[in-house]
Amino acid sequence: MKNTILAILFCAIFQLGFSQNYVPSIKNNTELSYVCKLHGQTRSLTLLTKTAKDTLVFNLETRGVKSSIIISQKALKNGNALSFNQGEFSPVLALKPNETFFMISQSTYQDLVKNKKFVYNNTTYVLDEKTDNGNVILEGKTIDAYHVLAQIDKTEMWIIKNPDFPLICKITENPLGINFTLVKIVDK
Predict the structure, then answer these.
(1) Cα–Cα distance measured from residue 84 to residue 81, given in angstroms and rounded to the nearest whole number
(2) Of 47, 48, 73, 170, which residue is least crowded by CB atoms under 10 Å?
(3) How far apart are CA 6 and CA 122, in angstroms?
(4) Per-residue pLDDT tens for 52-102?
(5) What is the CA angle 26-71-38, rounded to 5?
(6) Quick check: 104 and 119 in contact, CB under 8 A?
(7) Contacts of 132 (CB under 8 A, 6+ apart)
(8) Phi and psi torsions of 154, nearest 5°
């Protein structure tokens, strides 16, 4: 009887440990791999992070297109617009001071946590508290993410619960025809 109770207790603790959600860390030289659905086409996209004191650079590579997307410190902290540029227009693209790329700003993240909603690209997104966050799996682990819904269309977004680097790990139903899902993270 004692062995049965110990076995059940061990299984419960083991299951609890494995059911914890995963919050990936993003730092200098982290490689982010996405699968993107662009206007009916599927392609892979890789972003290599390069951090500096006053900027974040995503070195983007997809189907022979290589570009460096530069996000200013001002945008990282207080941006309110998402750029969907895929690097096809310039080998180096400095985003506008209010634009981020594949992430929301830190102040917008705080709005989401505090008010359960935020505004980005003049669209209000509201936290979906009705469903669980288990819609994004990365290498067998459920990512701990906020699931938000646009109030003007059907866009859904999953944002990693990381106040320093609120990365968008998934977008679906985007009316621009640009949807993506994070599939791999590698520290280089």
Answers:
(1) 10
(2) 73
(3) 55
(4) 878 999 999 988 888 999 999 999 999 999 998 876 678 899 999 999 999
(5) 80
(6) no
(7) none
(8) -95, 10
